[in-house]
Amino acid sequence: MTLSKLLFELSGETRLEILHALETAPMTFTKIADQMEITTSEASRQIERLSGMNLIEKLAAGSYAITPLGRLMLSFLPGIDFAYKNSDFFLTHDTTPIPRELVMRFGDLSGARFINGTIEAMNFMQERLRNVERYHCGMVDGLMDSIVPMIVERAKSGVIFRAILPETYRAKVSAIVDECMTADANIPPHAIEIRTLPTIPICGAVTDRGCGFKLPFTDGSMDHSTMVVGDDPRFCRWCRDLYAHYWERAEPV
Predict the structure, then answer these.
(1) Residue of 78, 76, 61 lying closest to 26 (CA atoms)
(2) Co-location of 109 and 70 in the same domain
(3) pLDDT tens column, 78-104
């Protein structure tokens, strides 16, 4: 089996539909033909091709089932589908800052949506910041002084804040945090924790109210006008893992 041959077989719409149908449960030849709304001769041809690639198998009872290999191959397709459906975005944005293991999990992004417009994206993040209940973890390439009072007030109520900022903000951020902690005894210890990186490769936020991220353009400049957001559990887990990757590499302030 060659990769080109495999991709060719998976490219057939009817064959792909058969594979997805067999993910749920084995099916008889007749049921496959009826559900796919194809002739028996066409069903026989498609089944033979899938069997020849070891993607499905005939059981002793006579029905057909997807093989472990077939199930594994299908698991890769949602990521390809997501990337291709949003090809205009990925043609102009740099995905190299995303760890390879997370690129392989691009299918987890299927439940996300795109917010277009700098103001719209900013409003989305500020709304999340105002309504967060437990935690807010952000990675941004700049610091808006206007949101500092909001963070302080939310920290008093027990919300945990984590932020990754550019190294150039280290002195400024350290002074702000020290000032807040000294001035207000109601802020729990470690409620606000800051780390820095030399440069910010991706902007994003992970909160208990949903997650989102921004990618840089292919020229390296951050695109603040488009944000991928969502509250789907798989998408949020992907975003948490992305944030954890950079949090572990960032230097504490």
Answers:
(1) 61
(2) no
(3) 999 999 999 999 999 999 999 999 999
